[in-house]
Amino acid sequence: MLNKWVSRALGGGRARELLLQLEWQHGKPKNIERLEKYLRFAPLYADDGLVEKAVLQALRFGVDYVVNRVSPEAEEFMSRYRAVSREYRRLKEFTRLQELGKMLVADVESKFELGPMLADYFRSRYKTEIVVLSRDKAYMLNGKMHVIARDEFIKKTGYKAEHNHLWESFYTSQFIKGRRNKKYAMRNLPKKYWKQAKVAGHYINFGVNPKKLTEFF
């Protein structure tokens, strides 16, 4: 059987049918197991038929043909994989969970629909109900995944994003004026993730004088 995230990402498309057919005929070849790593993320970038072309090339010429970007389709496929997987890693690092009753809520902004993956990741770490608000949906995971509209979840629960003052203390402890490195800081905490980290626009005590994160950069 295909990895659950690969199956979800591919949906009911032709690429999924090809992989299942090959598995049924020959078991699961090692090259297909390698390909699944990339198929977890690349299909989430766009649904335009490119993934099907990349899968066909991988089955025909080998996974290395795609991974090494031999064809234009392979080049684009791997670029999409890297873009989505990088976004997923960053969201795991910078997203902060907020308590809401017995639930932990993560409110994220992403170009890609990574809500289900993030809910699964946080649920593996915290044994309580996880809710990930992503785009216009609320992904609720507590054993089984339930999906409702974001607005419906907010209306039913009264959820309101709150600033996490404990998170500010991390910046207080890390700031050393003599080691201020704007380029390195931006690389580790890109501006588009400030909202996930709950720091954008709020005052943070950098040393003696209170400053905003925007003033630091």
Which features characterize this protein?
5-stranded mixed β-sheet, 11 helices, globular, alpha+beta, 217 residues, two-stranded antiparallel ribbon, 3 domains, single chain
Describe this entry's structure for a reader.
- The chain has 217 residues and is α+β, with helices and mostly antiparallel strands.
- It has 3 domains: 4-89, no CATH class; 95-157, no CATH class; 165-216, no CATH class.
- It is 51% helix and 16% strand.
- It contains 11 helices and 7 strands.
- The strands form 2 sheets. A 5-stranded mixed β-sheet has the order 1-2-3-4-5.
- Helix 3 (30-39) packs antiparallel against helix 4 and helix 4 crosses helix 6 (72-94).
- It is globular, with a radius of gyration of 21 Å.
- The model is unreliable at 199-213 (pLDDT under 50).
Give the SSE layout.
Elements lengths: L3 H7 L3 H13 L3 H10 L10 H12 L1 H5 L4 H23 L3 E3 L2 E6 L6 H11 L3 E6 L2 E6 L1 E6 H8 L7 H10 L7 H7 L14 E4 L2 E4 H4 L1
Helix pairs in contact: 2-4, 3-4, 4-6
In short:
With 217 residues, the protein is an alpha+beta fold. It is built from eleven helices and seven strands.
List the helices and strands in order: HHHHHHEEHEEEHHHEEH
What's the number of helices? 11
Largest sheet: 5 strands, mixed
- Unreliable stretches covering 5 or more consecutive residues: 199-213
Strand order of the largest sheet: 1-2-3-4-5
Distance between the termini: 48 Å
The strand count comes to: 7
The portion of residues assigned to helices is 40-55%
Secondary-structure-derived class: alpha+beta
Strand content: 15-25%
